[in-house]
Amino acid sequence: MTLIQLPSTRTAPRSQEAPVAGTPALTVSGLSKSYSGRTVLDGVGFSLARGELVAFLGANGSGKSTTLKCVMGLSTPEAGSINLLGTDLSTLGGQALVAARSKAAMVFQKIHLVPRRTALENVCAGGLSRLNGAGSLSPLFFPQSLKEEAMAALDRVGLADRAHERAGRLSGGQQQRVAVARALCQRASVLLADEPVSALDPHAAEQVMALLAELAHTENLAVAAVLHQPDLALRHADRAIGLLRGRIVFDGEIATMTHAVQNELYSPDRAAA
């Protein structure tokens, strides 16, 4: 794949020298997790590189969302290692772990925005961890530099003209793009999206997936998205990882994900129907 680098409108680059596309950003090895005696993840291992969008596919309960939650620290694995941007997270604790994990951002199916706040104020929240004192207490005290960076992030997702609208008045697709802009303002290098389009109409879903692919390719982000729609993955993803009963049974270029592979991945859903 040829990656085309476009100029970015963001005012604060995440680093002085952009890492090369294809550089591993996230490496997971031997991840295991169970709930109430039921194995959810069984030795899951994969890598996620800069400049690619990877779709996680599989039936309900196959472990897709749990995998991302373990990476983000929202669920604790019983075994395995997580290496984020060259740092083994298992060796860290306290503020050092918080700082390391801030290099990854997560976008959820349920969009976690403050409805009464404007889109701009919600995006500014992505940069609050970098502020000290009164600057982090209220939008009234957000520094101008943060507002400019947030506005650039909104412009990047095509919503600069909605910056001063309350988030609760935006459509579902627009709110999801605000959530992505917030991740950009966080200056994350890894973007994990857990079912980001499952609650959206088809047109909005296409827009959000196209945005995630564009951010991977032009901003050199490492992006992973849990999806229930293989057709969306085929149109937008570079690679697919398929889970079946907690194990990875497919990991390859999207063009190699045949109907036979899809049938295997979703066989538990058909059996339960």
UniProtKB/TrEMBL annotation:
Residues 1-14 have a biased composition (Polar residues). Gene3D superfamilies: P-loop containing nucleotide triphosphate hydrolases (3.40.50.300). Residues 1-21 are annotated as: Disordered. Keywords: ATP-binding, Cell membrane, Membrane, Nucleotide-binding, Translocase, Transport. The keyword Translocase applies. Residues 26-270 form the ABC transporter domain. GO terms for molecular function: ATP binding; ATP hydrolysis activity. SUPFAM superfamilies: P-loop containing nucleoside triphosphate hydrolases (SSF52540). InterPro entries: AAA+_ATPase (IPR003593), ABC_transporter-like_ATP-bd (IPR003439), ABC_transporter-like_CS (IPR017871), MetN_ABC_transporter-like (IPR050086), P-loop_NTPase (IPR027417). This is Phosphonate transport system ATP-binding protein.
